[in-house]
Amino acid sequence: MQFRKYHGLGNDYLVLESGDLHPGQVVDICDRHRGLGSDGILELLPSKVADVGLRIWNPDGSVAEKSGNGLRIFARWLTEYRGAAEDLTVELPCGVVRCQVDGDMVTVQMGHASFEPENIPATETMIFSPKSVGEAMLPLTAVGVGNPHCVVFLGTDLDGLPWREWGAILENSPLFPNRTNVQFARVIDRHTIEARIWERGAGETSASGSSSCAIAAAAVKLEHCEGTIQVHMPGGVLDVTVGRDYSLILRGPVEYVGLMQYRDSF
Q: pTM score, two decimals?
């Protein structure tokens, strides 16, 4: 099987060039020691309602509803290697999104954020709601952006906290029937947020597009921020513009890594 590898601020994906996938293969291919290594695999699908369809594989073999960085990578690959227009639509399980490619910068119209439990999904409304996580009490904000997110705003240095432990607990919390992505965030000013990401099915990641959207939407909901917000993560910075109706526009760079070959046996 052939793949092209890209990354968005260190959040890397393999785009399937040829071959068929099943969950067990995905786990092996994404393994960073015995496989090609990645935060997921992007698989081109046909679509009757958009230019193309997309299946997003998590490295644990599960399928994600949406990925902001995955969409940005997929859009750039489509324009570079499939002759797609620089303005295109992609069908996902959660709906159709529009992508615009401008060199190595890609913009995605990510739809609307929702804080309603049935749209996340979550078992209850959580808006800065204190919940017990391990031995800590953390303020949780549950938000859906096509996939589930749990944003935790904290007022201290994030790297001094056991956020990875908390992320693993929250990912599998019964509060989220389909598990959840988790973000730990610190507001710097009205347009700047620092964050750390624990991604469902992948664990710690250097950056995440959908997580950045969830963080920005939650920050606006809590009146911490407004307008276009820069989300600073270990891998770099993504820009998210939040509309009054909680519409979301994500913009950031995508870098090409190379062509890779995977063989199941030698």
A: 0.93
